[in-house]
Design goal:
Layout: E1 5-9, H1 13-25, E2 30-35, H2 47-51, H3 66-73, E3 76-79, E4 81-87, E5 92-97, E6 103-107, E7 110-113, E8 117-119, E9 132-133, H4 138-151, E10 155-159, H5 163-174, E11 178-183, H6 194-206, E12 210-213, E13 217-222, E14 228-232, E15 237-240, E16 242-245, E17 249-251, H7 254-258, E18 269-270, E19 282-284, E20 289-292, E21 299-300, H8 305-320, E22 336-340, E23 343-349, H9 352-360, E24 367-372, E25 387-394, E26 400-407, H10 411-423, H11 428-433, H12 448-460, E27 466-467, E28 478-481, H13 485-489, E29 497-498, H14 504-507, E30 517-520, H15 525-535, E31 541-544, H16 547-554
Parallel strand pairs: 1-2, 1-7, 2-3, 7-19, 9-16, 10-11, 10-16, 11-12, 18-20, 27-31, 28-29, 28-30, 30-31
Antiparallel strand pairs: 4-5, 5-6, 8-17, 13-14, 14-15, 20-21, 22-23, 23-26, 24-25, 25-26
Helix pairs in contact: 1-8
The structure holds flavin-adenine dinucleotide.
Length: 561
């Protein structure tokens, strides 16, 4: 294939990556990229920061230009060229030059589709009113900025609390706009489990971001003064000067569908491990495709830049490579990070709600979870910040299933390490043993990743038993609070017995031997020591994982004592 003609539809993440890699493999191939927008290879991930004036020069969003592709890579990029259809039997595409209106056909030896996804605009009353925006392209940012400046926007509603929504909340705040985030779930960052999302809820409130949670939007109305009223199904109303919609994405599959390519159960283009579609001369990559979930092996869609880039590169290797290396896409695990007003939220792999959803479909994964709240570097070094973490793992073999973390510093580093462990099919025992870099200003000799592994491994080895707050109602254990009395007096769980850790050996005779004891402290460490003391003295003691901090994060969503 080295001297063949490769056509690529879509010139941003997956498409541009594919084109550049293709040229590195073959100097002889003819490579043409078709992009219907005005720019090739622009930084869509940077768009919120241009709205927030963090990126001040629009040109900085252009990662590469047509000229660069031509001069550096000898690749022809045709911007403002819309690919209207694929004619698979002729190995040709029909293209419209959007500047001249000319329609022409172009033949290919190999065709790569990287058309991306489009932001959802739900069919709601008033959805097309002026002042309701989505953010997807550079022209979108211009329209938003013009509206904010032209209308003197003071209040905005962000509908959808996922990562684009939160990034926009941050950036609108940065330019002086008061923001309300409307999210139909009970917490923002729907990829997280509720108790982890609650940390973000609370943080956003502390930063004066209004939250309207737990009810979807039912419609929009324009008022006589030009403001927009967003109404929720709950009946609540939010009056603002503009609305930013970020309620999800829809894969662009129209071309593929019309060409008869197979579409998967999630509505994405079906591809094999080599990114080949159901037509053997057509490959597809990026937001538009369905790929394998690395952990479950099931089909999934993960619209993120990393997978799109890797898939684009891999498609070029498959199409133009020497056929010896047999590259395969290993699958996705949805590793992601989002920053909002100083807080970092990151996750990788499966969430508990995904595991439960699968269980509802008859696929049972025997799992356990632990929580911890370590500091991001040595506690004695100034400015140590807490990271709240959740680790999910298989009960039968300790394989890591997923992790979530929120905090102010060092969050994504821990999730990246765990992500790599998942990719290597690692277990909690691997996390326990992981050798990670340490100096006081960067971490701890027992890094949060090690601690997560140790807690989970202790459980799997039967060294400690774990209890969960949400199970409190079903059982009637004795709640033992081993914090100091001053901590206890500032807030505690109803009916909890306070025996501070330093006194537990002397006072354990006060505890029952015929009742389960669920011990907790602030984060779970002192209560772990307590459960070790108690279990070695014949008590049936469990450690409430994550301690009082996790209790506080679970409490708003569960009817706990
Ligand atoms: P895209 O990069 O969207 O490229 C598709 C291109 O194809 C488009 O430019 C489109 O115009 C063109 N096209 C479509 N159909 C045709 C046609 N028929 N003819 C010609 N051209 C066509 N991901 C992260 O991992 N981290 C982030 O921080 C992050 N932030 C984001 C912030 C924003 C505001 C947005 C919008 C996305 C963000 N993403 C982020 C997601 C990431 O950008 C996408 O997952 C990635 O760009 C997908 O790559 P792709 O090649 O599939 O599609």
């Amino acid at each position: 294939m080295k001297n063949k003609k490769l056509l690529i539809v879509g010139g941003v993440a997956g498409g541009a990556s594919c084109a550049a890699r293709a040229r590195r493999i073959s100097e002889e191939a003819q490579i043409i990229v078709f992009e219907r927008g005005p720019y090739v290879s622009f930084a869509n991930c940077g768009l919120p920061y241009y709205v927030g004036n963090v990126i001040t020069d629009e040109d900085d969003l252009l990662v590469a230009t047509e000229e660069l592709f031509r001069e550096r890579f000898n690749i022809e990029v045709r911007t403002r060229h819309n690919v209207r259809s694929i004619i698979p039997e002729k190995k040709a595409i029909q293209v419209e030059d959007l500047t001249t209106g000319e329609i022409y056909t172009e033949n290919y030896d190999a065709l790569v589709l990287s058309p991306g996804s489009a932001p959802l605009r739900p069919d709601l009353p008033g959805i097309d009113l002026p002042g309701i925006f989505t953010l997807w392209t550079i022209p979108d940012t211009r329209e938003i900025i013009a509206w904010v400046k032209g209308r003197g926007v003071r209040r905005a509603a962000v509908v959808g609390g996922g990562f684009i929504g939160l990034e926009m909340a941050e950036n609108l705040k940065k330019i002086g706009v008061q923001v309300t985030v409307i999210e139909m779930q009970n917490h923002v960052m729907p990829a997280l489990d509720p108790e982890m999302g609650n940390y973000v809820n609370r943080y956003l409130k502390s930063k004066e971001v209004e939250l309207c949670l737990g009810s979807p939007v039912s419609g929009f109305k324009q008022n006589s003064d030009g403001t927009l009223t967003t109404t929720l199904q709950s009946g609540d109303k939010v009056v603002v000067d503009m609305v930013l919609l970020s309620v999800g994405v829809r894969p662009r599959i129209a071309l593929a569908e019309a060409a008869g390519l197979k579409i998967g159960e999630h509505g994405g283009i079906l591809v094999d491990e080599r990114m080949r579609t159901s037509n053997d001369r057509i490959w597809a990559v990026g937001d538009a495709v369905e790929v394998k979930d690395y952990i479950t092996g099931l089909s999934t869609m993960v619209p993120l830049a990393g997978p799109a880039n890797r898939q684009g590169r891999l498609a070029a290797d498959v199409i133009l490579g020497d056929g010896q290396s047999n590259p395969k896409f290993r699958g996705v695990q949805a590793t992601s990070v989002c920053g909002v007003l100083g807080m970092t939220i990151a996750s990788t792999g499966m969430s508990e709600k995904q595991i439960n959803r699968l269980s509802g479909k008859g696929i049972t994964i025997p799992y356990e979870k632990i929580y911890l709240h370590p500091v991001h570097h040595a506690g004695y070094y100034p400015d140590a910040k807490t990271i709240s973490m959740k680790l999910l793992f298989r009960k039968d073999n300790g394989k890591i299933l997923g992790a979530q973390a929120v905090g102010m510093e060092g969050v994504e580093k821990r999730i990246d390490v765990i992500s790599m462990a998942i990719q290597k099919e690692g277990t909690v025992f691997d996390l326990e043993e992981a050798e990670l870099c340490y100096a006081p200003q960067y971490g701890s000799a027992k890094d949060p990743v090690n601690l997560a592994g140790m807690i989970a491994a202790n459980f799997l080895r039967g060294f400690t038993e774990v209890a969960h707050w949400e199970n409190l109602k079903e059982t009637s254990p004795l709640i033992l609070d081993v914090r100091d009395p001053d901590e206890f007096s500032k807030g505690h769980i109803k009916n909890a017995v306070n025996i501070p850790l330093p006194t537990i050996r002397k006072r354990m005779h006060e505890l029952p031997k015929d009742q389960e004891i669920w011990a907790h402290c602030m984060v779970g460490q002192r209560s772990y020591y307590a459960t070790r003391i108690l279990s070695q003295n014949g008590f049936n003691a469990k450690n409430l994982t994550g301690g009082y901090l996790t209790y506080l994060s679970v409490k708003p969503i569960k009817d706990l004592p």
